[in-house]
Amino acid sequence: MNSTYYIVIVLGTVIAILEILKFAYRPKRNEKRVTDIGSCMTIGSRDVQEDAAASMESRAGIMAVLADGAGKTYGGRIAAKIAVDTCVEIFKDYNAFDNPQYYFRKAFHCANREILKAVGDENRGSASAGCVLLRDGFLYYALAGNVKICVFRDGALIPVSTGHTVSVLAEKKFHEGKISRQEALSLLENHRLYNYLGKDDFKDIEFFDAPVRLKAEDIVVLMSDGIYDLLGVREIEHALAGAGKCQMKALEIIEKVNQNASDDKDNASIVLIGTRLES
Q1: pTM given for the model
Q2: Dist. CA 171–CA 199, nearest whole Å
């Protein structure tokens, strides 16, 4: 047998394996991918609810956004609403999935400008915001501030985003050799924000290097610091692992916040997005 014969045999085998894998991973004809979205929030012990959230589904995919406002009087509430409304309106007007990075940059920079026009500088109103796009089993994300974006998979809550806190910036600058180890250690407990919406010198957003490939039973999680600063990771994971749809799980997590013994509870908000196969 000559080399050409062996090449034909190998190629035939590879094609056969690919066809088998394609069939094995293809949903059955009587199965469909169902989107499951839930959200909930609590005012905590604050006088004003300064969080805002929204989700939207189109033929192209799903968008969800969560904003955590801060500021004097109602400034934080206004800033959070502007951030959410801007992401929603641009999602309606523009096919975000053609260029997710462009969509995120446009939405966040427009929101920053509108917040500055509405409430002035950050002392009167600002917001952290996280936004996600889900399409064909892939997750795209962007954020400014300290809203956390995670994926719950196989019983574990896996952080996707890092955030814009001084501690994160210090760690980055240490690895780049720009500050000493001692300087970095002194800043690791500093969770003050250095970037957020409603800032005159607003910096670029944090967004995905590559989209995250989601599994069928994954849950995408967006949550404000009123949840993750108060509850332990195990508490959140336990609620996410329970039976029921995402709305029930979101309600359970917020109830854990409400029942916590702390006297100083921040606004707390969560958005959950899951997909599952149903017959």
Answers
A1: 0.80
A2: 23
The CATH number for 191's domain is 3.60.40.10
The amino acid that residue 236 corresponds to is: I
- Is residue 7 predicted with pLDDT exceeding 90? no
Q: Using CA atoms in the order 160, 165, 167, 169, what is the torsion angle rounded to 10 degrees?
A: 80
The pLDDT tens digits of the residues spanning 18-68 come to 443 343 334 445 545 568 999 999 999 999 999 999 999 998 899 999 999
Structural domain that includes position 81 = 3-278
Write out pLDDT tens, residues 197-218.
Answer: 998 888 778 888 889 999 989 9
Q: What is the dihedral of CA 17, 139, 165, 179, to 10 degrees?
A: 30
CA atoms within 13 A on the CB side of 232: 3
pLDDT category, 192, cuts 50, 70, 90?
low
Tell me the C-alpha distance between 223 and 239, whole Å.
Answer: 14
Q: What is the DSSP string of 196-238?
A: -BS-TT--PPEE-SSPEEPPTT-EEEEE-HHHHTTS-HHHHHH
Q: Label the pairing between strands 62-70 and 219-223.
A: unpaired
The β-bridge partners of 207 are: 142
Q: What is the pLDDT of residues 78-103, one digit of tens each?
A: 999 999 999 999 999 888 999 999 99
Number of structural domains in the chain: 1
Q: Are 160 and 151 in contact (CB under 8 A)?
A: yes
- What crossing angle do the helices spanning 246-259 and 233-241 adopt, rounded to 10°? 150
pLDDT at residue 111 above 90? yes
Around 131, how many Cα atoms within 13 Å sit in the side-chain half-sphere?
A: 29
